[in-house]
Amino acid sequence: MIKWKYLYDLYVKKGLSEDEINSILVLDVKNREYFSSKRVTNQHGGGALLFSHDEEIMGWSFNK
Fold first, then answer.
1. 7, 20 in Cβ contact below 8 A?
2. What is the pLDDT of residue 16?
3. Measured between alpha carbons, how far is 48 from 3 in angstroms, rounded to an integer?
4. CA-CA distance, 32 to 63, in Å (whole number)?
5. In angstroms, what CA-CA distances link 30 with 37, 57, 58?
6. 25-42 pLDDT, tens digit each
7. Which parts of the chain register pLDDT below 50?
8. Residue 17: helix, strand or coil by DSSP?
9. Under DSSP, is residue 63 helix (H, G, I), strand (E, B) or coil?
10. What is the secondary structure of 24-56 as a DSSP string?
11. Backbone angles phi and psi of 47, in degrees to 5
C-alpha cells in the first residue's frame, strides 16, 4: 500500500482530481479462484495471464 499512496500523492501534486486519480490508479488483487479458473497453480507466475489472456484487463490498460 505504500507505493499506492506514493503514486496517489504524486498525482495530487500534479493537480489531478480525485476522480481522475481513481480512474487510473486501481488496485485490483485477484483471488485464488481467478487463477484456478484459468488453470494456474502458481499465482506469482500467473501474471502472464494479464498480458496475454485477460481481455478485460488489457482493454482497460490500453484505453488509459
1. no
2. 97
3. 22
4. 27
5. 11, 11, 15
6. 887 777 888 777 877 777
7. none
8. coil
9. coil
10. H-------HHHHHTTT-S-TTGGGHHHHHT-HH
11. -55, -25
